[in-house]
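Q: Entry one of two.
A:
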Amino acid sequence: MPPFLAFLLGAVAGAVASAFAPELQRNARPLLREALKKGILFARGAQVSAVEFVESLEDIYAEAKAEADRAPVAGVPSAGSVSRKRAPASRKRATRKARAIAGKRPAKRAGKRTAKGAAGEAA
């Protein structure tokens, strides 16, 4: 479309719109208000549906978690069982050295040596 024709068509549309503007404004305002009201109601309904959906998902998650906590898994201790971790071997050795330096021997070793010593002396 040539630019002059587009300009002419735009000018005619503007003139017609300005002539009917007050009437269009009176008729369009209630329609626009009604459309906005329906949009607001739709948004509220969508928000309520989304909240209900999230609550439903939270309930399902809580049920699944409760079932998972009750069911034992092979090789994995359950939440109710008490598991004690052993100290690393290097820490055990360091503790024994510290006791030996302080002149204190662990009760197990002292008992074994005493038993061996008593058996050797009796023979």
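Q: Entry two of two.
A:
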Amino acid sequence: MSGPAERSPLALLHLEDDSADAILVRRQLERELPGILVRWVATETDFKRALAHEEIQVILSDLSLPRYNGLAALHYARARYPRIPFVIFSSNDDPRIVRSVLRHGASDYLFKNELRDLPKAIADAAARRDGNGRAMDLLESRAKVLELSAELLRERDFPRALRRVLEVAVSLLKADKGNVLLFEEAQNKLRLADSIGFPQEFLDRYGWLPADSPSACGRAFQRRERVVVEDIHRDPDFSKFGSATQSFGFAAVQSTPLRGRNGRLIGILSTHYERPGRPPEEGLRTLDLYIQEAEQVFHLLESRE
């Protein structure tokens, strides 16, 4: 697993039929916004193709084009790519046109004699896009969680529900392995209840762990909160296992508590990664939403016993 991805350079799609204007815009933006990628298109076909096949963060468009126009492009983008901010850059200063364009969803409207103000307008639009994108990501995460939760509700016994939750966690966090340990109060130990990707030798060796184990799952159990270990070979607690860490088959792990009725801690769900790193925060947030729903299912299944 790799570490957090670096932010991609700002990619702007510029719809403009006048090549001289397109060159001026590119030079101004590249001067004020280092690293920006400006993709210039002059036709409807190229505009739609670029949106379909390229990663675009902001759209900039003239209002009047020979066979297409900025308002039509705006309608198209709003309908199919609502998360991409759309900025109009035009010589048309008719107030009624400006109001109409803004009412139809444009992020901003600049006149072509305001070229020096364009970089700030693009940067502001990109910043708004990032904020809206996070909100949209959260909505998409909630929709995904509802769908996954509906599947989970069809499970009729606890082991199968637990298996389903583990499968979803491994998928959501793009993990290489995963397991669930349940707390056995009589023994004061964590018992391996299910796993994905581990060899039998590992399962036999670590089928039971003390509740105060220095492992990530042990620490998560003791702290009653998630524990992320980005590199077990550099982690002082994992070093207590000595040379045994070489046989773990993973380099990073996150462990998240699972709760049942009345918030009682019933176990720990862990996902494991062959390379050092941290799971993406969006994936962890989605997992938290899913686990909240799963815990309601655990509660229902406990009530049936």
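A: Comment on entry two: The domain at 11-135 is CATH 3.40.50.2300 (Rossmann fold). Residues 1-7 have pLDDT under 50 and may be disordered.
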